[in-house]
Amino acid sequence: MGGNAVCARSYPAGFVYLFLGLYYATGRGADIRLAQHIFAGLYLLNLLLVFRIYCRTCKVPPYVFFFMCCASYRIHSIFVLRLFNDPVAMAILFLAINFFLEDRWSWGCLLFSLAVSVKMNILLFAPGLLFLLLQRFGLLGCIPKLCICAVLQVALGLPFLLENPVGYLTRSFDLGRQFQFKWTVNWRFLPEEVFQHRAFHAGLLLAHLAGLVLFALHRWHRSKESILSLLKDPAERKHPSPPLSIIFILFSSNFLGICCSRSLHYQFYVWYFHTLPYLLWCTPTSKLTHMPKVLLLGVIELCWNTYPSTVCSSLSLHICHGLVLLQLWYELPLPPAPQPPQPSKKSDPLSRKAQ
Question: Which residues cross the membrane (predicted)?
Fold first, then answer.
C-alpha cells in the first residue's frame, strides 16, 4: 500500500481507484480500443451534462454548440486518444453543478469532492463554491456541506493515510509542483529562468487571490449589505440577496485560476473549454458582437492546437483571456432566466433561479 501511495504522486486517491478499475476492465491495459470506447462514452455523457447546464441559462445561441461539439481537435484528442484523467474530473464536476442547479447541495458537494479526488484542478472552482454555500446557507449552515467534502476525501484516501499520511498529502495535493517549460502553453514568451522562479509563482498566486477578492466583492456579491452578511443565517439578513448566479460564479472562479496558472499543459484545455461559451455570452450581446466572440473562440482553439507552443501563440492566448476577463468585469451578466414552476418539488426560491 505504501508503494501505491508513492504511485499516486501527483493525483489523489480517486484517480488511483478509477484507473485501476480501467486497467482491469481493459485486460490489464492490453485492450486500448475498449478504453477509447469507454472514454468516447464519457465524452458524450460530458456533453449531455454541459448541454443540460446551458439549457438552464438560455444565454448561448444554439449555433455555438456546433463549435463545442465538432470544432475542437484538441478536446477530442484529450478524451479519446490520450485518455487523461482531466476529462473524467470535469465530467463529475459538471454532474455536481447539475445537482447544485436542482438545489441538491449535499449531493453536489459529494460529487464535487469526488471530482477533486480525481484531479485537484477542480479546486479552482472551490472559491466560487464556498461563496455560494455561504450565500445560500450562512456560515453555520455551510459547515455540514464542507464536512461532506472532507469526509469523502478522508474515506477515499484512508488506505494511503494509514500507511503514509505525510507522503500522500504532500504528493497527491502538491501545490508547489514544478512544471516543465517545454510543455507550457501559456508562458512560452518568458525566459525559462523566469518561468521557474519562485517569485514569479508567488506573483501569480497574489494576482489570483486579488482577482478572487475583487470578483467576490464587486461581481458575485450583489446584496446591499456588507459581504460579511454572508456569515449570517439567510433568514437574519436585512436585505434579501438577488437570485444566485451559480454558473457565473463557478465558471468565473475557475477562469480566474486559469488566467493566473503557473503553467497550462495541453490536456488542461478541458479545464475550461466547455465554460468559454457561457463566459462570452453571459453578458448582454448585440448582433454585431456575435462574430467577434466566435472569432475569440477560434483564436483560443488555434493557440491550443499549436504544438509546440510559440511566443505568438502564448501571447495570443493571454490576450484572449484578458479580453474575456475584461468583459466579465465591465459588463454585468444578464439576470438568470426564469424557470417554469414544478409543483411536484418544493424548493427554495433562491435556487430555482440559480443560473
Answer: 7-26, 32-51, 105-134, 146-162, 199-220
